[in-house]
Write a structure and sequence with these properties.
Elements (H helix, E strand, L loop, with lengths): L14 H5 L15 E3 L6 E3 L2 H19 L4 E4 L6 H13 L6 E2 L7 H10 L9 H7 L2 E5 L3 H4 L1 H13 L2 E5 L12 E3 L6 H14 L5 H7 E2 L1 H8 L4 H8 L3 H13 L3 E5 L1 H4 L4 H14 L10 E3 L6 H6 L6 E2 L3 E2 L5 H9 L11 H10 L4 E5 L3 H4 L3 H9 L3 E6 L11 E4 L8 E4 L4 E5 L11 H11 L9 H11 L8 H5 L8 E2 L23 E2 L18 E6 L15 H6 L5 E4 H7 L6 E5 L4 E9 L6 E5 L12 E4 L6 E2 L3 E9 L3
Parallel strand pairs: 3-4, 3-13, 5-6, 5-9, 6-7, 8-19, 9-10, 13-14, 14-15, 20-24, 21-23
Antiparallel strand pairs: 1-2, 1-15, 11-12, 16-17, 17-18, 20-27, 21-24, 22-23, 22-27, 25-26
Helix pairs in contact: 2-20, 3-20, 3-21, 4-14, 5-7, 8-11, 8-12, 8-14, 11-12, 17-19
Amino acid sequence: TEALDGPTNHGLLCVKGRSASFDFVHSPQRLTTPLIRSKITGELEPASWDEALDLVARRFGEIKARHGGSAIAAFACARSANEDIYMLQKMARTVFETNNVDNCARVCHGPSVAGLQRTLGSGAMTNPISDICENAQVILLVGSNPEEAHPVIGMQLRAAVTRGTRLIVVDPRDIALSKTADLHIKLKPGTNVAFANGIVRQLIHDDLIDHAFIESRTEGFADLKAMVEAYTPERVAQICAIDPRDLIAAARLYGRADRAAIVYCLGVTEHSSGTEGVMSLSNIAMVTGKYGRPGCGINPLRGQNNVQGACDMGASPGDLTGYQKIAAPGIIEKFEKAWGTQLPRFKGLYATDCFPKMIEGEIKGLFIFGEDPVRTDPDTHHVIKALKNLEFLVVDELFLTETAKYADVVLPGRSYAEKEGTFSNTERRVQRIRKAVEISGTRADTDIFTDIMNRMGYPQPHLTPAQIMDEIASVTPSFAGISHARLDGAENAGQGLQWPCTGPDHPGTPILHVGKFTRGLGRYSTAQYRDPSELPDSEYPLMLTTGRVLYQYNACAMTDKTEGINEISGRSFIELNTKDAERLGISNGDRVKVTSRRGAIDSVAHVSDKTNVGESWMPFHFQDGNCNWLTKAALDNICSTPEYKVCAVRVEKLGASA
């Protein structure tokens, strides 16, 4: 596989892009015919497209007629094209008549969208990757292991450090980048808010703040200053289990730099205080005036290839395309006029809030497009119980995933290699994808949604992906200047356009918030630190946190179709600290049982000092010991993202290594 030399990757590919991004396309396990669950056998059996789509339309229509659109939900696919996601949420709102629409950002970067919208007015990465790596003098890397989770970016960050960029790593684990960092602050999981508040206090006390920026571009500084005063280095050190001198050194290294960027990921967001964690990091950049300039800003690294686009396209209960708020005056009316129908006005539910409603019987029908919550969502028992309680479940997928096995209807969709359209990457860059192959028996996802819409009484024309993007542009100010024709033109071919792109002659926006924040004045967070929802105790004495490994992707639905990848990394494991392992009589490679209050799994012990004493870590990819049977569905109090990064477990030895 040869990498395109694009503006974001600069000719770089990770091992998954180089070796595991194509085998799954032609896998013999691909779904190539619709499946309907037989009332006689209870098994999923092959059916025609007409049979399957007729059943989907009829059953959702019946649920809507009996219980209203609030009894239906739809989840969008963060690996699919913008055009697909737009049509999915349009289908949900026009014919399911529901605002219960969401995407996998709910279990990863929902706090980024919510937190940055509140503080800045725009919930996305502020600066391009190349700008950060070339122009930042200091990078504050928080809760992110980019060399494994975002390796193309990780390679560029490592190159920047090699060239002399100063690096502060804030992470509970030893990661590869921490070995070359100026500082590694190995804080306790779940203490990000205390850490950020302590940094802000130190910046204020050292007078490393930008008084003119604070005065002219922000509001509420006095309240922030009063709130952080209690977060002395000594108190923060006690909460975070760090050396207070490291906190002071980190604040001074960041604050004295003219250009410093904050880069973060799921170690910040996947907490019950995730949104507050994001906003607290924003405080650091705001008090130092490090917004709207090269080499600065706050930059969440998005995981799945189009999770940014899924949010941009309105796959959210409170937003339509381009983060236009359903509750804002005139927005619903604008879309009703454009779509020629009346739209639901009730406040929709986040995906993570939908599962309890399924168990309670309030949500009765669910359409899942390309997501596998049985593998990826917390507390797997809870998810399965919810899906089993539905009256009707439809899954549009490439493979018979763990979630699809519970469906009443399974529809064979298409992968990136089989469709035209666009993706929006982590730096807001909208780029073209082009059809390379066709898998017989599958159908374009946009056509699937269009056929369901027509069957349910909405006259949706069959549009090409280019025509769908034109429709998106017509209702979305931040996408108004984006079209397939323009992306294919000589000026932008291979480069894409970064939104906001507000007209056909607009060049796009590499850096957000230049001169003015999207919301006007920047807003500070005055969130106080609070404990995670579950802490270790005598029965469950170890803290477990979760994450990704380099060689696998998300729920392994695609990457595990490449045998070479599985040979390198194909099974569950748990990282234990050397002292904890010694206390438990566990050696490296031993088989172990890991138990939480929600479930138990078998895994393999990896003994090292990567984690602190009393802490452990697991990847979430592997079905042979999926840590999400253990994790807790405690939700962020603002945007309902689960607390994957902290739960209490005990570990017991099962047997010696094979």
